Amino acid sequence: MAAGTTVRTEELAAELRLVLARWTRRLRALESGELTPTQMSVLATVESRGPVSAGMLAELERMRPPSLTPVLRHLESHGLVRRVSEEGDARVAVLTPTADGRAALRRVRTQRAAFLVRLLRRRSSDELAALAAAVAVLTDMLEED
Questions:
Q1: Domains of the chain
Q2: Residues 74-117: pLDDT tens digits?
C-alpha cells in the first residue's frame, strides 16, 4: 500500500491473511520430516501447558478429541510425550513432554529462529522498528481473541 493511502480494513485483512499463511507454510517447510505440523503443535502445547489432560489439550488445540487420539498415539509411541496418572485419582491421566520431546521442539525452534535471524539481518533499522511495532500489534490482537 502506498504512503498516504487510506487503509481499508477488508483489504488489509485479506493481505494479512495471505502473508501469514505464506509465512506459516515457509516456517513449517523448515521442519524435519519427523513430525507433522499438527503433531508439532500438540507437542508444543503439551510442553507449554503441561501437565495437561487430553480433553484440555483438545480444547487448547481446537481439535475434536477423536482427531487428537491418533496424534497423541504417535507422540507417545515415539517417546515424545508420556501419560502420567494424576495424584489422588489414577483414573485421570495427564500428558507431559519427555526429554526427547523437548529436544525435538528445541531442534525445530532453533532452525526456525536461525532462518528468521538471517532474514532480519538484511533489513534496515527502520524496517526492524516497523516489524517490532507490527509484532506488538499482532500479539495484542491474539490476546483479544
A1: 33-113 (1.10.10.10)
A2: 999 999 999 998 777 777 889 999 999 999 999 999 999 999 99
